[in-house]
Amino acid sequence: MPATAVLDILSGLPNPQWVLTPDVAKQICDFILSAQPLKDVQPEAIPGLGYRGLLVDLPDCQAVDSTLRVFNGLVEIGGTFFRDSDHHIERLLLESAGETVDDTLIEHARKALE
């Protein structure tokens, strides 16, 4: 089963989804395997409208047993948080969408990272 990403950005319409390349999936899995979990994290609330991050399924990554959310400089897996310095994972995922996702949606998400 391939790794997939969903851009959580639309309300009332299906969010865009795409299949990740094995290289991108491996980079995300490697990040999780090497990152230290954060303690006492109070993440910012996910907004009701607009860009709400990315949801990622990595079925071949043993370190991940559920969908992970990448948002606002954090990667969250089942209540455990990891720091995504400089939004590296978030940017990697947005870049990986290619032509699958409308450019205006990707640009809106990128602006939210600034």
Strand count: 6
Number of helices: 3
What is the chain-wise order of helices and strands?
EEHEEEEHH
Strand residue percentage: 15-25%
Largest sheet: 6 strands, antiparallel
Poorly predicted segments: none
What does this structure look like?
With 114 residues, the protein is α+β, with helices and mostly antiparallel strands. The chain has one domain (4-112). It has helices at residues 22-34, 88-96, 103-112; strands at residues 4-7, 17-19, 54-57, 68-71, 74-77, 80-83. Strands 2-1-3-4-5-6 form a 6-stranded antiparallel beta sheet, covered by helices on one side.
Short description:
The chain is an alpha+beta fold and 114 residues long. 28% of the residues lie in helices and 20% in strands.
Structural features:
114 residues, six-stranded antiparallel beta sheet, 6 strands, globular
SSE map:
Blueprint: E1 4-7, E2 17-19, H1 22-34, E3 54-57, E4 68-71, E5 74-77, E6 80-83, H2 88-96, H3 103-112
Antiparallel strand pairs: 1-2, 1-3, 3-4, 4-5, 5-6
